[in-house]
């Protein structure tokens, strides 16, 4: 028997599946980080979970998911969609999670549960994009190509490898800039060593170091060895630039 849940009361309006689907199709409105959270809840967590639980899967600080909802609501309002303000009684500040999720407390955690209509619309949206061979591309005007993909860190990597739109775009841009494909950390070239055009796409997650500005999702070219190394315990909580600087020093030592 399903547990009866005591949902947190809110005054937000309900959107239909068609309304959510239309919003998902709007350019540069749904934050890729919010889409990542929804994807994680749907396919990793059976539709519900806390921000900290999502963070444990994706590796992102959980605060980013709150900010992603603020960004999305503001973007959609600018497009003309009506989102009734959900004001907190004590602080008088606006609440944003309630537009996308039902909420309740469980084991001292506040749980987000994807609203049924959004769940259905998101499933349809993902399905249609996968069937067309088209990936979710964000902010093409600034050439920042991003996609909603698998969420566990290793799984993100493998889905990037399968995503021909994202990987091929990144490889074309890299070749235009550098003339050929090679590892950005150690300069290894599969073409020179094995006669094949191959490289792995490293999915760089935002990193927060004090007051640093958060970096967006990006792809960089790494050989298999460097890719495994950068995801290791030694490096996975540091900016990728630290790994690149380390590799540069190692190469200088080797050459001498």
UniProtKB/TrEMBL annotation:
<dbReference type="Pfam" id="PF01844">
    <property type="entry name" value="HNH"/>
</dbReference>
<dbReference type="GO" id="GO:0003676">
    <property type="term" value="F:nucleic acid binding"/>
</dbReference>
<feature type="domain" description="HNH">
    <location>
        <begin position="183"/>
        <end position="233"/>
    </location>
</feature>
<dbReference type="InterPro" id="IPR003615">
    <property type="entry name" value="HNH_nuc"/>
</dbReference>
<dbReference type="InterPro" id="IPR002711">
    <property type="entry name" value="HNH"/>
</dbReference>
<dbReference type="GO" id="GO:0004519">
    <property type="term" value="F:endonuclease activity"/>
</dbReference>
<protein>
    <recommendedName>
        <fullName>HNH domain-containing protein</fullName>
    </recommendedName>
</protein>
<dbReference type="GO" id="GO:0008270">
    <property type="term" value="F:zinc ion binding"/>
</dbReference>
């Amino acid at each position: 028997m399903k547990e009866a849940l005591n949902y947190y009361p809110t005054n937000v309006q309900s959107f239909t599946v068609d309304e959510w689907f239309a919003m998902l199709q709007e350019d540069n409105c749904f934050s890729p980080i919010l889409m990542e959270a929804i994807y994680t809840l749907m396919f990793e967590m059976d539709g519900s979970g806390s921000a900290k639980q999502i963070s444990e899967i994706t590796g992102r600080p959980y605060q980013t998911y709150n900010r992603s909802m603020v960004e999305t609501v503001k973007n959609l309002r600018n497009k003309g969609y009506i989102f009734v303000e959900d004001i907190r009684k004590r602080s008088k500040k606006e609440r944003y999670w309630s537009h996308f999720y039902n909420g309740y407390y469980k084991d001292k955690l506040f749980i987000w549960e994807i609203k049924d209509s959004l769940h259905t619309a998101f499933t349809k949206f993902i399905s249609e994009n996968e069937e067309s061979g088209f990936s979710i591309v964000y902010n093409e005007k600034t050439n920042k190509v991003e996609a909603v993909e698998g969420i566990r860190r290793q799984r993100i990597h493998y889905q990037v490898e399968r995503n021909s739109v994202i990987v091929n775009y990144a490889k074309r841009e890299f070749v235009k800039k550098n003339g050929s494909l090679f590892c950005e950390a150690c300069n290894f070239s599969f073409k020179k060593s094995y006669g094949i055009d191959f490289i792995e796409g490293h999915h760089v997650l935002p990193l927060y170091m004090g007051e640093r500005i958060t970096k967006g999702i990006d792809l960089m070219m790494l050989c298999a060895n460097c890719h495994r190394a950068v995801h290791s315990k030694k490096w996975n909580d540091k900016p990728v630039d630290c790994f690149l600087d380390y590799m540069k020093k190692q190469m200088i030592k080797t050459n001498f």
